[in-house]
Design brief:
- Helices cover about 75% and strands about 0% of the residues.
- The chain is an all-alpha fold.
- Helix 3 crosses helix 16, helix 4 packs antiparallel against helix 5 and helix 5 runs antiparallel to helix 13.
- The longest helix is centred in the N-terminal third of the chain and has 34 residues.
Length: about 475
């Protein structure tokens, strides 16, 4: 019996999928603290990271339509060990990143109860843990339930709040209210001698993470060689406009030193609604932003956990995680990542300021993800020469020169972000010494376990060989 082929995705639907996977209102405060120079860094990040990641991921997704994802692509290029390292970095990034987005959700919900709770570390910890285990329960029910929930949240929780925030910023600027940055061409160009300007690149790159998750849909696009680049460019333009204008709106209304990385968006909305006697709209804004962030969280939680299950069959994880039921290993990994994320969440009561905890976790997760992206770009070059005859529905434009240019730009963006991550912005209340110490310890805790996975496989393989001998 032949199954009816799925209807090809239209240009508009594909564009919405790409935008919905990347655009997010929660990232705006982390870029708003840098003021006008963020315009340059958003454009720089799009050129050296967002576009290269999306284009290369689209080609790899369309080349191997049955198997895909970072684990398969890197493994195909460099073997099991490096493929396992790549999927581990993607997974551990999610584990460390979870408390940051959950803290954003918790601080958003505080505006339904008492806004002061948004900066209370004990409230945040309790709320994060409750949300984390609720999320674990939902995602453990399978991708079908999770997908429906995420799809229902996208337009209501991402597009509407983002556009609303930008419109409100336009009203604020036009009404001669007090503003805390003054837009000018000179201000938009950063002073490259000031290191703190470069630190803003980390916040921008964090806002662009996840482009590779959206490009798996390229195989379902009619005439992908023509439609995918059009949809991608349109989506990137929309993402840049909304993120730049949204960040500038927060920077206009709140002084940089007072922007809270978790609830800066909610503070901006509250300031506007209070000024124009529209406070009754605040609960609606809270519910919209909550639904978008929670839906995004559901999407992000499932993919890396499912990717990591692929390493079980290759002997990198203990047999206790294995089962004839394919859903059980996935559920067990979800529980493990939630336990680890629960422990990490305690940083919100251990570090001196909430901004410090939020930034440190954000940078740690971004650093390991950038290392994974470096592997992706190198694999993109290697695979083209290793498997030159593989047919793809979409190819990188420009032939060999275009491939080297696109992957080279991606390597420039990821390398710069890795270096810059070692330096905190001045707004984070941590000394350079303490920040470096926490940062190095955090990176070691995130990366070193993969050596244990290698050792487990080698030891297990040796044991089997001895028993057979």
């Amino acid at each position: 019996m032949h199954t009816k082929p799925a209807k090809p995705l239209s240009f508009f639907v594909l564009m919405l999928i790409i935008v919905g996977s990347i655009d997010s209102i929660r990232n705006l405060p982390a870029t708003a603290i840098f003021g006008e120079p963020l315009i340059f860094f958003f454009l720089f990040g799009a050129l050296t990271f967002l576009l290269p990641t999306a284009l290369l991921s689209a080609e790899l997704s369309s080349t191997w339509s049955e198997q895909g994802g970072i684990y398969f692509w890197v493994k195909k290029a460099f073997g099991d060990h490096i493929g396992t390292l790549a999927i581990w970095l993607q997974w551990v990034n999610t584990v460390v990143w979870m408390p940051t987005i959950l803290s954003f959700i918790a601080s958003t919900l505080a505006y339904l109860i008492a806004p002061k709770l948004a900066t209370n570390p004990y409230y945040l910890l309790i709320a994060i843990l409750c949300l984390l285990w609720l999320l674990t329960f939902i995602t453990s029910k399978g991708i079908r339930i999770s997908g429906k929930l995420a799809a229902g949240c996208t337009i209501f929780g991402i597009f509407l709040p983002m556009v609303t925030l930008i419109i409100l910023g336009g009203f604020w600027l036009a009404s001669d209210k007090a503003v805390h940055i003054h837009l000018s061409w000179q201000g938009a160009v950063p002073h490259f001698s000031h290191w703190d300007n470069w630190v803003s690149l980390t916040g921008v790159m964090t806002a662009f993470l996840g482009a590779e998750l959206a490009t798996v849909n390229v195989r379902d696009v009619h005439n992908p060689e023509r439609n995918f680049p059009k949809a991608l460019i349109t989506a990137v333009i929309f993402i840049l406009i909304t993120m730049i204008l949204g960040s500038l709106t927060i920077a206009l209304m709140i002084p940089a030193e007072q922007i809270n990385l978790m609830n800066g968006t909610m503070e901006t909305l509250q300031n506007f609604f209070t000024s124009y006697h529209l406070s009754y709209l605040m609960p609606v804004a809270v519910l919209m932003i909550f639904s978008g962030a929670f839906g995004e969280m559901v999407n992000w939680t499932t993919s890396p956990a499912r990717g990591l299950t692929q390493t079980i069959d290759n002997g990198y994880l203990p047999k206790i995680l294995k089962s004839s039921d394919t859903l059980i290993p996935y559920k067990r990994i979800l529980v493990v990542q939630s336990i680890i994320a629960s422990v990490i969440s305690c940083l919100f009561i251990l570090l001196p300021k909430i901004n410090s905890s939020y930034w440190l976790l954000t940078v740690l997760s971004t650093e390991v993800y950038m290392a994974m992206y470096m592997m992706l770009f190198i694999a993109g070059i290697c695979l083209a020469y290793k498997f030159p005859d593989d047919k793809a529905k979409f190819r990188l434009p420009g032939g060999k020169l275009g491939r080297w240019l696109i992957c080279g730009l991606g390597l420039v963006g990821t390398s710069l972000t890795l270096i810059i991550g070692f330096f905190p912005p001045t707004d984070v209340a941590l000394s350079m010494q303490h920040y470096t110490l926490y940062f190095i310890i955090g990176l070691a805790c995130m990366v070193l376990p993969v050596l244990g996975m290698y050792g487990y496989k080698v030891g297990h393989k040796s044991l089997i060989s001895t028993e057979r001998g």
